[in-house]
Amino acid sequence: MNRQIRKIIRILPAYFILILAFFFVVQGIGKLSQSKDVFSGSVSGGVENVASQLQALNIDAQSAISVVTDLSNSKVLFKKNEQRKLSIASIAKLMTAVIVLENVELSEKIGISKEAQDTFFAKDLLYAMLIGSDNAAAEAFSESIGKDKFVELMNKKAKEIGLSDTSFLNPTGLGLDNFSTAQDLAKLAEYLLKEHRSILDITVMSGFDLYTADGKVLHKITNTDELLKESSDFEKRIIGGKTGETRTAGECLLLVLKAKNDKDYLINVILNSKDRFGETKKIINWLDSAPEPRPVFDPDSLNWEQTLSSAPWQERDSDAVLVYKDKIWLMGGLNANKQVISPGIVDYEKSPHFSDVWSSEDGLNWQLVSEKSPWGNRRSIQVVDFKGKMWLMGGWGPEVGYKNDVWSSEDGLNWKKEIDSAAWPAREGHSLLVFKDKLWLLGGVRYDKYQLFNDVWYSDDGVNWIEATNNAGWSARWDHGVAVFKDKLWLAGGMVFGGRMFNDVWSSEDGKNWSLANAKTDFQARQGHYVVDYKNKLWVVGRLDAATNGGVNDVWYSDDGVNWQKTKNNPLWLGREDFGAIVFKDKVWILGGMDKNWTWRNDIWYSTSNIDIKK
Q1: Does 594 lie in the same domain as 489?
Q2: Phi then psi for 354, rounded to 5 degrees?
Q3: Is the pTM of this model over 0.85?
């Protein structure tokens, strides 16, 4: 049976969020509403109790928000008109500082203006701008790059980190055309905590002695944040922030401090206030007096955001994706976009296969590590992080054929062939994972021999392999999902010749003896999906929902592998098979794959969720 026909055959309650009703609160509190963003949610504890406490606060600012976060999960504790677009004055200098750190050498000498005789080191100007809110320093930075280019970079960065209601016209924040929302600024603060903590560190300095580059002229810089002069206990909790004030913007303040539990962070934003420091203290004191908030992940609310619609690597599926040395790595696979004769009929022999290697520290910016690796162009390779190296094995390519070789690399560029022919037969569609400090290889297919596998192999070193069983109990299959969960191996789904797919779930404590956890789960049969242990639950993610398969693309989770719950929302990304998937920075990431329209993709998505507050 040729590959085209074979491909046709292949296709052939824990917690829930308390929703607050909309209502209006007198004395300037404004309308409380659920926001549809990464900070979704509201204060728990009962509507009447919350309303009475908010009334007592008497917050006159036009907009405000308070968010608790552990940098993985975030929850809104208080909000007032948090999506209203307002002038933000000098809070804009936080974004200016981001652009400086990412585009300017801090040892560079910069003049305050083109006519200025005095020059300063960029690092010193950065301190002057963040501590004393110096406008001349901000303008000097923009002139060093080019004013238009600098502002373009500010708006580009805002878009990259999801500030959808933010716009910058200049680096100082002056003027009506520099605007944002309290909600967006809270996102910016969280970005600073994760990526540019040094900016916040500078903003808590009480003062700074600014010298010219030649060390002759001294300027005394004093911090504009009065809360830094508060009692020692309060001041010690402050991590950073920024003030802003103009006649139009009123008094503005962004403040980040440690939560009362000394583990999480409180992000507070006040816009257009008559007493920014007093109103910020009111909110923080109110939050401190409440029972300790604790962010709790809500699995039912798992949702998705797109980080890239088109990554720099070519569209593909059946590639390998892993996390190694705090980076996402992607390699191999194929792109058959130009070889689709009709849905289900594809000339795979003529389709480009890859041996390139890419890496990314954030899922957004990618670097080509190697354009062509020595293991050759192939798909269905499996790669894992094992004992400080990347280990790659198996797969198929038009040039290399079916393989059972094993390769390792410490950097993705230099690869060592550990063994040319391992003890297990050559195959593709297999799975590979690390369990009990060993490499484990399970199942797979060899189309040319019409051969399926349900064997299980393990190795201590990647070279010497032992067969745990040649018949694991589950039907021989390929494109199944596997994971380690609660100290067991788990296997779910997959398919066999004839187009039959599975929705069974199996587990094993030793890789040899397997138990059927659920013969027919509530989720539909699938193949080319993702199975993972995430947030102490077992997840089945994604499904090819092409016309030949029927059903929908969905996500399910389980506490025990037996009983399964579907998430409230189906994925925003198109149903697909053989996509790359990993858990990275406490989120589930989806990369590429072949979608329901028989289109190979290079988009990237990551998971988001609502966070419940337990007190």
Answers
A1: yes
A2: -125, 155
A3: no
How many residues belong to the chain?
Answer: 615
| Count of domains forming the chain | 2
- CATH number of the domain at 70, please: 3.40.710.10
Cα(205)–Cα(216) distance, rounded to whole angstroms?
A: 23
Question: pLDDT tens across 12-41, in order?
Answer: 333 322 222 322 222 333 332 323 333 433
User: Pseudo-torsion of CA 70, 74, 79, 84, nearest 10°?
Assistant: 120
Owner of token pair 């390998």:
320
Per-residue model confidence as pLDDT tens digits over 250-309? 999 999 999 888 888 999 999 999 988 888 888 888 877 766 555 678 899 899 999 999
What does the alpha-carbon distance between residue 193 and residue 200 come to, in Å, rounded to a whole number? 8
Query: How far is residue 171's CA from residue 174's CA, in Å, rounded to a whole number?
Result: 8
Q: Annotate 368-421 with DSSP letters as a single string.
A: EEESS-TT-S-BS-EEEEETTEEEEE--EETTTEE---EEEESSSSSEEEEESS
Q: For residue 98, what are its two tokens?
A: 């981001």
User: CA-CA distance, 424 to 465, in Å (whole number)?
Assistant: 8
For 50-71, give the DSSP string: HHHHHHHH---SSEEEEEEE-S
